[in-house]
Specification:
151 residues; alpha+beta; three-stranded mixed β-sheet; 40% helix
């Protein structure tokens, strides 16, 4: 994937370096908290403005959790995830399943690809068990409330 040729400001470099050092995805608020303790802190609105610009230039990717929270990471860290839509638990995949895929010129329609995301959403084993227990309990309560007809 490409990045847009741009010269980053010192604050954008600072923000990108903080994301790299973190070793994990960070929310804008988490990133703001990290930078607040630095020698050159920046406001929350500035953090989000720079994250948006870095995303538009292909330097940062954004992933949205089912809760609506946005997590950011540098695009050179090619990570993909499996996320539970119930509890929000996330597991990182060991590999990128789409590396071999390429778009031809016709499919690109003039776009310059900057990065890709691939996310899987489902139910984790704990939430599956909890939901099965809940369904069983509802069925048992419903069975007790309605007497069975005698033959």
């Amino acid at each position: 994937m490409a990045t847009v040729a741009t010269t980053l400001s010192s604050r954008q470099e600072q923000l990108l370096e903080a994301l790299r050092r973190a070793g994990r995805e960070l929310s804008g608020q988490d990133l703001h908290a990290c930078l607040r303790a630095s020698a050159t802190p920046m406001g929350l609105a500035t953090v989000y403005r720079h994250l948006r610009q870095l995303q538009q230039w292909g330097r940062v990717r954004c992933r949205h959790l089912p809760s609506g929270e946005a997590l950011f990471a540098p695009t050179e860290r090619d990570e993909h995830h499996l996320t539970c839509v119930d509890c929000g638990q996330t597991h990182r995949l060991d590999r990128c399943p789409v590396h071999a895929l390429e778009l031809n010129d016709e499919e690109l329609r003039g776009y310059l690809p900057l990065f890709h995301t691939l996310e899987f959403y489902g139910l984790c084993p704990d939430c599956q068990r909890r939901q099965r227990r809940s369904e069983t309990e509802v069925g048992e309560v419903a069975g007790q409330a309605t007497p069975s007809p005698s033959v």
